[in-house]
Design brief:
By secondary structure, the chain is an alpha+beta fold. The protein is built from five helices and seven strands; from the N terminus they run αββββαβααββα.
């Protein structure tokens, strides 16, 4: 009888874990309820070169916030993200890159190594900030805000779209590439809002 009970408990646990894992990968795009009161542009951070940075300097722009990594299977997205930045920056769009080592240590480099890799490999010109924690209790204030209504990053290259007023609009799964029609439409929709 004890074996049967233990077996049932294990099966229920596995079922619950399976549902949670399936749910975390089943949604590629999430949107906020619009009830968020804090603005990304109220926060401070540090640039990749170690200088203080006030995100208020981006107030009035639409931002795509991305947690990046240089040793990930998705690292090639740097190219498409830079292309988005080049295409839309004149219309009030900015990409804010936050290197993170939270997923299997795929961003082990120093700030100098990250900067050199991004510049030489992908000609990245969008702003990059200091390596940040993007998940868990120790995540940065920026990622606490980004994930206050939406899920934390599930992997490197999770993308958060932020409106001109600094409120988070939507979250795009890492598998959503920069050339994805839904991502581009969401950016264009936010850019159309004055």
């Amino acid at each position: 009888m004890k074996v049967l009970i233990y077996t049932l408990v294990i099966l229920v646990c596995l079922l619950l874990v399976g549902v949670k894992i399936r749910h975390s990968f089943s949604t590629n795009i999430d949107q906020t309820s619009g009830a968020q009161t804090a603005s990304l542009y109220d926060l401070q951070t540090t640039t990749l070169s170690g200088e203080p940075a006030d995100l208020g300097q981006y107030q009035g722009q639409v931002a795509l916030v991305v947690n990046t990594a240089s040793k990930c299977g998705l690292t090639g997205q740097y190219e498409g993200i830079e292309a988005l930045y080049q295409e839309y920056s004149a219309k009030g769009f900015v990409v804010l890159g936050f290197p993170a080592n939270d997923f299997l240590g795929q961003e082990p480099g120093t700030a100098q190594e990250i900067a050199l890799f991004c510049a030489e490999t992908y000609n990245v010109t969008f702003p990059l900030f200091a390596k940040s924690k993007v998940k868990g209790e120790e995540r940065s204030e920026i990622y606490k805000l980004l994930s206050s209504e939406l899920a934390e990053p599930s992997w490197n290259f999770t993308k958060y779209l932020v409106a001109r007023d600094g409120h988070v609009v939507s979250r795009f799964d890492p598998r959503i590439t920069p050339d994805n029609a839904e991502l581009r439409a969401a950016i264009e929709q936010e850019l159309a809002v004055e």
